[in-house]
């Protein structure tokens, strides 16, 4: 073993060699998961954790973080991230502030003018499994939304097969924690216990993100119907697509094997077997099921994740790991 | 008080003036609801109630019922109903034994050869609101399945508008009581609590019933994806259809008003407002919501019912009321 | 039939002969149940219904109600009820404002000085089954709290048997609707799903009400531990008492039969059989189970109710019925 | 890299250096947790895992395990454990087969005559935190029941303070997984959703185990009321005890600090603060809350655990770790 090798080993155990991380928005549901995961991460040291309310850039910067995780509201992230970048702090943002490449979508879908639209081009959209080398060089990662994560993991590998003259239909269901930690009668236990409902059809912020992630042009209809599921955690997306050429279950199995054969946190089920939500709740995994219909002209695809983990915090850790050169599942397994 | 008046009072209490009803399968979930509803029905007298196991035709017939409600397994109903009809007892069957007009569907979808296929043509498919006078003359009513009830109430009024070259996509979710009263680990509390899953895609017995109810020919694709919802009661069907000509929300509102303006147990919501499951749980109501998309080329339609009531027992009572000339909501309001 | 009899019959059907009722606090959970129950009550006409926020005495009085139901906060009821009484409107108050006979308990347990302490002596504590003729003459009924209703129905019949040198221990569990309709993270779905916890030990407003209802003196310890149950409705009280003389299960059965043999809305189970919550949820019934232990020196008693019905709205209707001379279960069965 | 270094690396990876473990009953809820925990344990190698049905002693022994975990039914464990011990395999038994020291309790509480009563004296009752050196020498560990674990952790430290002339009252609530993986309508989702009920009063197998663990003699009454909680996991025990001499909250805090100051998996809350179930669900922790009442003459004590972890599998791992000399939390943190 050479000196360099020894040094390498020593460094790996040296506390000072850990990456210094700060978390803003640490008391929300995703933020709390970030704290939990990073506190047991072998190569991360939490130097600061702040609630969205108590948080100030000055206090955060004083802790000299290498990387800041922002689990803050969209407008806060849009405002704070550029300042941190200017001060040399890398940013992994869990809000929607940097997910959309098209600046004009911010006023129409998010309700505010983007303060630094030029950063939208630089931000890396961190759907980890579908990123290549870009995360290792990124200064700013836009961590994907929970619904888009579940949808894009399932549909992106099929991009060149989907018939874009037919609508892409997404019937998605989310556990209530997806709405965040809210004092709101509409999200109270009594209102939602034993209940179920569709909401926000045609208005959900995740719709343009899905459309962008699938590179859908004007001529392709996207029908995205989110529903509120009476459980605390998990997203279950049932998707309906048509193909340009008939495909077999074997074809789909092969496409997914190509896409995720080496992905440690995506499980693809055998054709015809549909995932259940509990398989992924409280885990960093995504699970995908599929079944062709009508002689392969169409398929039903189902994708499940834990909205607070693969749909937020654990995917942020995956991105952090890739950004820093750590094993992708460090802190997650 | 005169003798006539006394007679009048006596008549009102006279048991012989009530319709005599017997219930087979009275200990299952739907059967128990039947017992509960019929026991407070002003014009029905329960003369016999039997579990599916203890039940014999002889015992039932001895009670001299006018009408028998069968909440028995498919094959039991297929066997028993013809015998009861032959003995002059009218039958309202809550199983699938007489729902499909096409005899060959029984071996392929239900797994048994129908013992009396000629009765399939006679049986009245009892989706109450879409029946006309036929219920008043019926000897045998096939009470619709729970999923088909929710779907057909929503889509049948749109029959002449739906573009049949496009798939009809139904993403349906049912509370667990839909599976019946079962000793099965798969339906145990621990397995299903906080869980959600699609099941039976392309294999569910209700698929041909929906296809029949919508008069879908070979060229129209029907994608029916049932899911198990972690609650005890209720069905929530989210449906995706395309139209031959663009329609407006106002058009749909008018179509539904025409269909259900006089239906006491169907509520249609204003355009763009989606129902929630709890609005109908423990009630005999169906509730329908709709929203056009893409300039009226498509719409999302949502329909909710209580699977054990409008999807089973209370619809059976509606059919009973129509059959006997009682007010449609007698025993239900 | 005499004219008087005819008049009587006519009056019974005369809309103008109905009792005019107004409801303040109609949008809370108990208030909404009041509206639902009174709207189908044969002898009540709702002349006004107001949310706690929009409600004014003037508006209410203008509707000329005979009886006002107050489902308003404690201090609002304490302020409003006396004014209504002064204007000749009878009051059934569902808050705690008139439940305690001892004025000094208001500052210590409720946090406010009672504005009309002299009314506390006049108010009839409306635990319906344990009232005698006093409801028919009452101007002001204090409808009992949900926990006290469940506890007192079970323990009041045992008053002369309980050993008061031993503690009375009450381990009570309530569905979340017991906390009211609240925008509060602590009562959000995500926080409470799959959760369970004790709260407010030694501080719950219902503790002095239980102590008063059992006539417990200083020397008797009362341990009241409320818990929050992860369901929407229902109270389950498990109670532990010691007896002065050993009793048998038969003794207890007889005591309860004496107390409730003629009570249409209280069901006493056979000895050793414990109720389940669902038997009473969405019903106006209370159900009581009991089992002696240690040779009859002690017993476990369980009592269940729906907190919004027997624990609030349906008991208020029982009291209204007794107040007005209607059958006790009118509007409830 | 030198040979020595290679040896060192090799040793770290050398499977033979790990403790070889086999699991019988690996498909039940506790067994599955055992497999999950042991599969990531640094010093354990799973050499065999069997369902209760497929399991044979011969097959298990062929895998040459050092330690066998039995998550099998009581009578199976009673039969199998002695044979494994005779073959030199250490046993950690998660059933009740070796928990009670008194052989005569088996026929009366468990319904079978114990086949090897002499082993009852040898078996170490593995309530980890309350064991001293005995686990390191044990051949046979009786892993405690879930209810007793929650109760004894809370009450054992108070043993010398509890007034044994007064009853010890335990109102315990368990998530449904406590009943095991069962095909039984009584444990089906539909029956238990939104439900709650007491069961097995005076008959529960855990009652003599609690009595034994607290060294309660004949003169002390134990009232143990288990309830079924409508959630999947977790036990919440609310306990009521009287003291010989009044104690203060500070006294209790000190007693618990003495008992658990060094216990890594028991958290004691500040006086007056009660735990919530979710704090421990899916974790190996126990959490204890307490509050004195009536001037210190009595207290309410609450103890919560995950029934499948601290109440079964993770406590078995703690015992395994102590047995083998590994750090107590290895595989659990």
Task: Describe this structure as you would to a colleague.
The structure is a homotetramer of 333-residue chains. With 333 residues, the first copy, chain A, is of the alpha/beta class. Chain A has two domains: 3-143 and 312-324, NAD(P)-binding Rossmann-like Domain (Rossmann fold, 3-Layer(aba) Sandwich); 147-305, Dihydrodipicolinate Reductase, domain 2, CATH 3.30.360.10. Helices cover 31% and strands 21% of the residues of chain A. In chain A, the strands form two sheets. In chain A, strands 8-9-7-10-13-12-11 form a seven-stranded mixed sheet, covered by helices on one side. In chain A, strands 2-1-3-4-6-5 form a six-stranded parallel sheet, sandwiched between helices. In chain A, strand 1 (19-24), helix 2 (29-39) and strand 2 form a beta-alpha-beta unit. The longest helix of chain A has 13 residues, at 74-86. The first copy, chain A, starts with a helix and ends in a 9-residue tail after the last helix. The B-C interface holds B 1, 5, 193-194, 282 and C 1, 193-194, 282.
């Amino acid at each position: 073993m050479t000196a360099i090798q020894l040094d390498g080993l020593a460094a790996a155990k040296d506390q000072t060699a850990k990456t210094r991380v700060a978390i803003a928005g640490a008391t929300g549901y995703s933020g709390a998961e970030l704290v939990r995961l990073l506190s047991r991460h072998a190569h991360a040291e939490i130097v600061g954790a702040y609630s969205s309310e108590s948080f100030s850039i000055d206090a955060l910067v004083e802790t000299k973080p290498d990387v800041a995780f922002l689990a803050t509201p969209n407008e806060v992230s849009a405002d704070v991230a550029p300042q941190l970048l200017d001060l040399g702090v890398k940013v992994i943002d869990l809000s929607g502030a940097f997910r959309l490449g098209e600046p004009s979508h911010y006023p129409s879908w998010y309700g505010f003018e983007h303060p630094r639209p030029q950063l939208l081009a630089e931000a890396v959209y961190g759907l980890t499994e579908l990123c290549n080398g870009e995360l290792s060089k990124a200064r700013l990662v836009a961590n994907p939304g929970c619904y888009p994560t579940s949808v894009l993991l399932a549909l992106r590998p099929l991009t060149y097969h989907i018939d874009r003259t037919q609508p892409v239909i997404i019937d998605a269901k989310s556990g209530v924690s997806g709405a965040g930690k809210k004092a709101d009668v509409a999200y109270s236990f009594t209102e939602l216990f034993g209940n179920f409902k569709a909401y926000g059809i045609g208005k959900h912020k995740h719709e343009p993100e899905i459309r962008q992630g699938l590179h859908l042009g004007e001529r392709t209809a996207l029908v995205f119907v989110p529903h509120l599921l009476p459980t605390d955690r998990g997203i279950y997306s049932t998707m309906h697509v048509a193909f340009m050429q008939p495909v077999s279950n074997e074809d789909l199995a092969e496409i997914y094997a190509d896409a995720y054969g080496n992905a440690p946190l995506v499980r693809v089920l055998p054709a015809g077997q549909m995932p259940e939500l509990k398989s992924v709740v409280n885990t960093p995994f995504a699970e995908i099921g599929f079944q062709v219909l009508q002689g392969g002209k169409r398929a039903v695809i189902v994708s499940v994740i834990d909205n607070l983990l693969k749909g937020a915090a654990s995917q942020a850790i995956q991105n952090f790991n890739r950004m820093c050169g750590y094993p992708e599942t460090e802190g997650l397994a």
